[in-house]
Structure prediction request, 463 residues.
Amino acid sequence: MMAAVFVFSGLGLAACSNDNIDNDSGSGPAVPEPTAQKAKWTVIVYGQTGAQMDALMEGVYERCKPLMASSDVRLFFCYQYGKDEVKHGEHTFKAKYAKEGDVLFFELTKDTDLSKLTAKSGSEWKITDPANLTAVINDVAKAAPAENYSLVIYGHGGGFDIEVDCPDNYRKSSTRATLYDAWDQTKGGTGAISMYNLANAINNSTVKHFNTLFFHSCLMGNIECLSNVYTCADYIVSSAHVLAGVDCIMAEYIKALYQQNDAEKTVAQMFEGCYNEWQAAHLLDPSMNLGMNGDMNLIKSAELPQVMAVMGKLRARILALYPTQKEAIHLASDKVYTYVIQKRTSQMDMQNYADLLAANTGDDQMKAIAAELKQALDNALLKRMMVNYDAFLKLPQYGLSVALVKNTTYAKRYGDYTFQQAYEASEFHKQSGWGEWLKVNTRDVSRSMDGHGNSIIRDDDKE
Prediction:
């Protein structure tokens, strides 16, 4: 197998190859004729990490290359390199196989000569344009038809973000969300694929439904985001935490795809194979055993509607108790495990929140709902990988996150729309009504601890 050459969305991108094959439009090199036999798995890695982490992606190329034993598993990369910056007097761009802004679109095989990959300058090409993702999926699916397809979004995620995660008819500019783009400097900040655009890109492709949607990015174990993409795949791999950058995760994933016959066994083997290296990457100070907490979960998409349904019951019970149990409910908001402090949006562990509500209110119905939520999450989160370093913020088991903001934040206008408009467009709100709780919650939840006893004050507190 030779590394194929592709063209998509008007941008010609070449990998090292002895062949020049035209695409359907007749311009430039194109997708080869499909092989007679389908691959067991075809994996598409699509992303951008920025100059400081481009070398990490190149480490993924290098670690996966010797694993490509046969055409049972075919692996394609569409990756855009970041911008060089000078930090502390040192340039951040240290990539070997491409230059700033270049896009590589190639199939990796055991014979690929990484030093001879031909990149295309892509600073005008937007990795966050959903039409480009659709075109990449279509080109790969034509070149490498498979029994199972896996899409890996590799880059920086932010979970639900009010400035990007709303339908296009609301907003004119965007910042970061599912995948950000350092080359797309819009009025609102850095361009991004929203959860809606990601789903549309998949739905508009010839694949339409993946076996696995894999977020190799931070904070995507967020129920608001998952609710809008879960119908695109049978399984989702994601982390609700900040995800440490290591190349072992993808390498162990590819290795497991060759050795296992389904997604559950594959991800279980991947977790086992990469755990020690991944855990070490979360350790910031070995002398103090100080580091970041982390998680990765394999989620069964078909179970997420039940999770959302139970969250609807939780919302209804909170609203029923709020007039008489406000102090107890506010105490739960004060103490709930917070995955990250985002501008205007706090992401809280939903199971921890339900447990705290049950304990603080003493309400039997709330206790029953918390138990039902635990069962729903256990059914949905089939395989888990967790690391605990932070002594101030630690749970015995991490789950999915959910937004929790005060009512004044929920009512605010951000550009062309309000938080409420954006939030209530999400599938999660439609199925759970969670925004009805955010609409009346008077607790300022924008203050939290950073894990080391320090109070964080977000923008909301200053407004």
About this structure: The chain has a mean pLDDT of 83. Residues 249 and 274 are 6 Å apart (CA to CA). The chain has 14 helices and 24 strands.
